[in-house]
Amino acid sequence: SFDFQQEVYQELGVHIVSFDRPGYGESDPDPNRTPESLAMDVEELADQLGLGSKFYVLGFSMGGQAVWGCIKLAGAGMIAPVVNYWWPGFPSNLSTEAYYFQLPQDQWTLRVAHYAPWLTYWWNTQNWFPASAVAAGRAEVFSSQDLEIIANEEFCSGQLRAYPMQQGNFESLHRDMMVGFGRWEFDPMDMEINPIPDGGGSVHLWHGEEDQMVPVTLQRYIAKKLPWVKYHELPGKGHMFPLIPEISQSMIKALLYDEN
């Protein structure tokens, strides 16, 4: 999700390690996946690679939501992270308003994933009712700037889009829905005290003001509720802003140098 040039890596002196979450790419599916089990996967990967105690976890969109479970491991950056409308810590009026900000078909898709997860595959493959507009990548869920970004031929290439889903949608996209919008073992809103020890890094959250997929109102509430999260709201940006090279580079620098 990041657009970097090789010289940027060299300038910052960093190595970026990308891995496939369970069910994506060539990673084995995990039918019992939870936010906490994914954090354990990240911890094991870091140990196997010998990353030491100083590393950062970055996630975008649905992957950004997964970072909540990894915060105790290291410094973290959440980029346009998807929110769970059923987290108990959200005021009901705020989460309800944000939920209905979505297109009706996306409201129904998330309802099914939360209340009847065993129907998630059927709902997303049946033809009687409209399925998720977000999953289908329909134009209505993108801001005007997003549409300009995804018009890039390389981004939309079939090969690039096919790799993550090579094992099918159920253990990747559909499992993400069931885990992300299901019942969590913890509520991020309960982490009022910074869970990262002093000197262990910081947590940043970036979100586009004009994001049509994930309502910015809930991110603003998170920033207010959890003051240790360094919140960056990007005026005029939608959901796909990390694909803008200048923004990607500024995010990495902010995380490394702990800049506001």
Automatic annotation (TrEMBL):
It comes from the Eukaryota. InterPro entries: AB_hydrolase_1, AB_hydrolase_fold. Residues 12-243 form the AB hydrolase-1 domain. Signal peptide: none annotated. This is AB hydrolase-1 domain-containing protein. It comes from Linum tenue.
